[in-house]
Amino acid sequence: MRDSALKAGLVGLAVGAGVCLALYGLASRRRRRRKGADPGERDRSALLRAASGIPLVSSSGRREQGMDFPNSPHVLETDDVQNLIYLLESTKDAAIQEQILITLSNSAAFSINQDTIRNLGGLPVVGKMLSVPVANVKEKALNALNNLSMNIQNQEVIKVYIAKVCEETCSAPLNSELQLAGLRLLTNMSVTNNYHYMMTSSIPGFINLLSAGNERTQVQVLKVLVNLSANPAMTEHLLKAQASFLLSLFDSCIKEDVLLRLLVFVTNLTKHMKKDKNTVNYEYNEDSVFSVLWGDSTVCAQKLASLFHHHDAEVRLQVAALIRQQC
């Protein structure tokens, strides 16, 4: 324990040393800004050098540069965060952008720093990184926004990037870390109903990822779809989506993490359909979610009957819940 505490302390000092080199440059920049002058190239270079020396930990918890941050909400002080935001805004170096985004992401894992980053105007600066044509930078920006989105006030700022995040997520290389980072952020942003309407046009893209993606992608996209399906206002949009493959996932060979979420998704839609008869009367395409699940109820019933004998107890319980909703 003593060695661990000593190591944590040394790392904390290392972080401080990395950012303190930037303090003088930032102070000078602020003084000149008050006088109406732009920051000099010398200050900018000093800040960039400081950022490149900051020890980092990736959002997945992997060590970067062989060092860890101490487990404390005070990993970065307010001035340090201000420095990093300025650096991120001023540099065009993708490697430095990536480093800064990882640092801000780690810092944003703590609620106190989520507020600090927002109050210092950091959210729009991070959001702009989604337009950088470098996949790693976009991924790290999404990871940072994901941590920052755990704060309700931050979500009100982040919502302006939802369309961009949906676009990047659906067009990213299939099963890539970039795609998964986008889906994680959209999962957080869809926990409440507040921003569901901003994701409506991307539902076909999400359904496509469910069809083509691997297990990790399927689980993550189903988290988004389950959140959307919990909102009655989204029912018709989801039922219209083309998903001819959907019943093929109702199979005992499908991983439980995927199957459980798919069953919850269908259960939510069934519950809303029972309450709103208008959704049933709409004319659906033959490959739509509605037609696939309820166009030939016999096929769906057979699939559910086989899953009722699934080896996993949670799957059996969810199948029972779905059957009750259909009665």
From TrEMBL:
Location (main, coarse): mitochondrion
Any one annotated GO CC term: mitochondrion
Cellular compartments annotated: Mitochondrion outer membrane
Keyword check for Transmembrane helix: yes
Cited InterPro entries: ARM-like, ARM-rpt_dom, ARM-type_fold, Armadillo, Armcx_regulator
Membrane topology reported for the UniProt record: Single-pass membrane protein
Span of domain Armadillo repeat-containing: 76-293
Gene3D superfamilies, sorted: Leucine-rich Repeat Variant (1.25.10.10)
TM regions (residue ranges): 6-27
ARM repeats: 121-158
Claim: Ligase is one of the keywords in the record: no
Keywords: Membrane, Mitochondrion, Mitochondrion outer membrane, Signal-anchor, Transmembrane, Transmembrane helix
Family: Belongs to the eutherian X-chromosome-specific Armcx family.
Protein name stated in the entry: Armadillo repeat containing 10
Originating organism: Anolis carolinensis
